[in-house]
Design a protein that fits this description.
- This protein is mainly alpha-helical.
- It has one domain (18-88).
- Helices cover 35% and strands 4% of the residues.
- It contains 3 helices and 2 strands, in the order αααββ.
- A two-stranded antiparallel ribbon has the order 1-2.
- A hairpin with a 2-residue loop joins strand 1 and strand 2.
Length: 89
């Protein structure tokens, strides 16, 4: 939960008000690559209410317990070659 989002109590209250969670979700960037689950931020933003409710419950549970699921700790790094002048990297 990045501090540059303007949803004041989302990171301060446990459980966070749903309105702040929805605000946070709307402000996530659309142009990011998905993780191992292949779910993009845009997919979550457009998800049906039941899915958003489930995500809200999971995020609040993580905040309350202070522990992230170990499956969330992984990252997938993809190198994107870029061309600079005559050379390729």
């Amino acid at each position: 939960m990045s501090p540059h989002f303007f949803c004041p109590s989302f990171t301060k209250e446990v459980p966070s008000p749903r309105v702040d969670f929805d605000c946070w979700l709307r402000q996530l960037p659309h142009d990011k690559c998905p993780g191992d689950d292949e779910l993009t931020y845009a997919m979550w933003q457009e998800a049906p209410a039941k899915m958003k409710d489930a995500l809200y419950q999971i995020v609040n549970q993580v905040v309350q317990n202070g522990k992230m699921p170990t499956s969330w700790e992984g990252a997938l790094t993809t190198l994107i070659p870029k061309k600079f002048g005559e050379e390729k990297i």
